[in-house]
Amino acid sequence: MKKFKFTIDGASYSVNVKSVEGNQAEIEVNGKSYAVGLEQEVNTLKTPILVRKEVQTKPGENKITTKAAPAPPSSKPSANGVKAPLPGSIIRVVAKVGDTVKEGDLLLVMESMKMENNILSEKNGVIKSINVEAGQAVMQDDILLELE
């Protein structure tokens, strides 16, 4: 409810606007209620209303009809693969193909959540392949390198 004070021809009026709907207003002037018609409709909404059409789908649309291609051999899980423990970026690759490593040896360093993480060998072996390089982004469980 809004309150106004008007002075018309020296007479003072206290006006309370109780409600406005469309082009009709209910007001109270000096304690007496009136229904007043407005010449133009007052727009009470300040946010536009978004009206969208319903999405029409055709029969058979949104159905998968082809099978996904098999994963390349290098990304298939291996019993001897060293996986990324969490998503991040490779900062430095310490090991090289053909190196002999023991359990606990440093293989590479990766950054995840603003922390450097040392990736260590989980068992003894020889490095068969390295699937990442410095600066590369990896996801959790990506095969970083493989041991023989």
| CATH structural fold name of the largest domain | OB fold (Dihydrolipoamide Acetyltransferase, E2P)
Q: Outline the low-pLDDT stretches.
A: none
Tally the helices: what do you get? 0
**Percent strand:** over 45%
Report the CATH superfamily of the largest domain.
RNA polymerase II/Efflux pump adaptor protein, barrel-sandwich hybrid domain
Lateral arrangement of strands in the main beta sheet: 1-2-3-4
Instruction: Determine the N-to-C terminus distance.
Output: 81 Å
CATH architecture of the largest domain: Beta Barrel
Query: Tell me, what's the shape?
Result: elongated
Brief digest:
With 148 residues, this protein is mainly β. 0% of the residues lie in helices and 45% in strands.
Can you put this structure into words, describing what you see?
- It is a single chain.
- With 148 residues, this protein is mainly β.
- It has two domains: 2-37, no CATH class; 78-147, RNA polymerase II/Efflux pump adaptor protein, barrel-sandwich hybrid domain (OB fold (Dihydrolipoamide Acetyltransferase, E2P), Beta Barrel).
- Helices cover 0% and strands 45% of the residues.
- The protein has a four-stranded antiparallel sheet, with no helix packed on it.
- It is elongated, with a radius of gyration of 37 Å.
